[in-house]
Amino acid sequence: MSRVPLIAGNWKMHKTIAEAEALIQALLPRVSAADGVDVAICPPFTTLQAMVDSARGSRVAVWAQNMHQAQEGAFTGEVSAPMLSELDVAGVLLGHSERRELFGETDRALAQKVPAAFAAGLLPVLCVGETEDERERGDTERKLRHQVQEDLARIDPGQLGDVVIAYEPIWAIGTGQTATVEQAQEAIAFVRALVADRSPQAAERTRILYGGSVKPDSAAELLGMPDIDGALVGGASLDAEAMAAIVAAAIP
Ligand code: PEP
């Protein structure tokens, strides 16, 4: 089965509304001819409505960077899945390593967030990945198994294929140090095998992205690997030219 390539840009805590508007206006014409590629941006909460309005009718989907698992409640500072779908946001990053490492995001919460996203009509994009220490200790597969199994435990096999997973080795995020294509392919094939343990059909459909210092000059080789269905791009997504070049590298 052929999976539609997907390139997503994580803008992290960058861009005011005016700056985000300038970036999306530079990006839209540069990706408008990228037939056969799905494109998404993940701007900060405060810019979501403006980005949804600007991207309407284009190939660019707008995703959030995080959400709370409850629909509503006494959770000061949090935003729920129904609040995002009310804005016409299409998806949400869940379990980004910065959320896990800096803000105490747990696998237990993620096991609730993934179904909560689906329930609100959002595409859940689950991020997983090992630290440098874990890779050096030979613990990469153990870490990925733990995250994939626990975070997706409440998703039934019929829905598993709709989840997007981003494999992001933590040592490669924002460091300029990209995993080799062989390391990325091997880890992503392993993640796909974990999904196949639950449902071989889902494993064929699930799009699994690579993330970690993807740049225009490294994109084509990564995207050429059999199990790598796209990229989650941080730093380079803040430059419309670079993001568009990565999208172009994904055109089938
Ligand atoms: C990310 O934040 O998901 C990411 C991959 O960042 P960068 O591309 O900057 O390493």
What does this entry show, briefly?
This protein has 252 residues and is α/β, with parallel strands linked by helices. The chain has helices spanning 17-31, 48-55, 81-86, 97-103, 107-119, 132-136, 140-151, 157-160, 181-198, 200-205, 216-223, 240-249, and strands spanning 6-10, 38-42, 60-64, 91-94, 123-128, 164-167, 207-211, 230-233. It has 12 helices and 8 strands.
Fill in the keyword field for this structure.
252 residues, alpha/beta, TIM Barrel, 12 helices, 44% helix, binds phosphoenolpyruvate
Major sheet: size, sense and barrel closure?
Answer: 8 strands, parallel, barrel
Helix amount, in percent?
A: 40-55%
Query: What value does the Rg take, in angstroms?
Result: 17 Å
Secondary-structure element pattern, one letter each: EHEHEHEHHEHHHEHHEHEH
Distance from first to last alpha carbon: 14 Å
How would you explain this protein's 3D organization?
The model has no long low-confidence stretch (mean pLDDT 97). This protein is an alpha/beta fold. It has one domain (6-249): TIM Barrel, CATH 3.20.20.70. It is 44% helix and 15% strand. 43% of the residues are buried. It is globular, with a radius of gyration of 17 Å. The structure holds phosphoenolpyruvate. Phosphoenolpyruvate (PEP) is lined by residues 10, 168, 173-174, 211-214, 232-235. Residues 10, 168, 173-174, 211-214, 232-235 line the site of phosphoenolpyruvate (PEP).
